[in-house]
Write a sequence for this structure.
């Protein structure tokens, strides 16, 4: 399915920007990634774009994992509804667990293990869950066992903090904000997972950090020289270009 076709149905539904969605879609097509894992899905909009890319490639599978929905869920429309509207259900395997995605990873590692060796299966993974050090640091090491060599991992919410979330609600994904220390509230925990664990891991390189966005990327590729690329969105670049143009006009009188 072409990106534009999917976008006509998905536009306006949170929480992925059109720019990030297009980057994700194009990346999957370019690298022919056909076995994908997404941990944390919200409405499943990113999931649908990934399923559309898989369809465009001619086949593959996206495994999505999230919490069980309750009757008061804010995620309406749900991923199931959106996939049905796009006729892409056949590419997505949905798992909903009471305690979240780390127990799914436990079961997946167990299923992939023979004679104490876990065979990797995924080409690509997005981690976009509670944004919590305890949960997502563990998730990274579990995903590492399941991610193939040269595979890619993305973390969302790079700069997110519980302190900012606390202005809107009392808890995030089952974690009550008032139970956290001031340090835990104010620390961007995904940022620390990425810098203290992913970037220091000997098997990861080719890091990409979106300085004005929420995504950070890393490739499971062992190398002596690790590179870090800082990117800005085309929207931000255009805004900066327009600002510079206005300043130059003012200076010229």
């Amino acid at each position: 399915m072409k990106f534009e076709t999917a976008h006509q149905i998905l536009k306006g539904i949170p929480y992925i920007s059109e720019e990030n969605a297009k980057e994700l879609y194009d990346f999957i097509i370019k690298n022919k990634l056909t076995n994908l894992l997404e941990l944390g899905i919200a409405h499943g909009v990113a999931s649908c774009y990934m399923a559309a890319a898989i369809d465009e490639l001619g086949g593959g599978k996206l495994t999505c994992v999230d919490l069980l929905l309750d009757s008061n869920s804010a995620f309406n429309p749900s991923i199931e509804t959106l996939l049905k509207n796009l006729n892409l259900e056949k590419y997505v395997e949905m798992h909903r667990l009471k305690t979240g995605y780390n127990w799914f990873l436990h079961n997946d590692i167990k299923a992939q293990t023979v004679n104490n060796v876990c065979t990797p299966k995924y080409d690509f993974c997005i981690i976009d869950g509670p944004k919590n050090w305890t949960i997502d640091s563990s998730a990274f090491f579990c995903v590492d066992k399941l991610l193939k060599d040269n595979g890619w991992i993305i973390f969302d919410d790079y700069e997110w903090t519980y302190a900012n979330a606390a202005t809107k609600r009392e808890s995030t994904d089952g974690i009550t904000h008032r139970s956290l220390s001031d340090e835990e509230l104010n620390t961007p925990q995904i940022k620390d997972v990425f810098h203290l664990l992913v970037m220091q891991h000997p098997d990861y390189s080719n890091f990409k950090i979106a300085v004005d966005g929420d995504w950070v990327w890393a490739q499971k590729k062992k190398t002596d020289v690790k590179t870090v690329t800082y990117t800005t969105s085309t929207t931000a670049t255009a805004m900066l270009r327009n600002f510079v143009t206005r300043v130059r006009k003012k200076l010229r009188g």
In short: The mean pLDDT is 91.
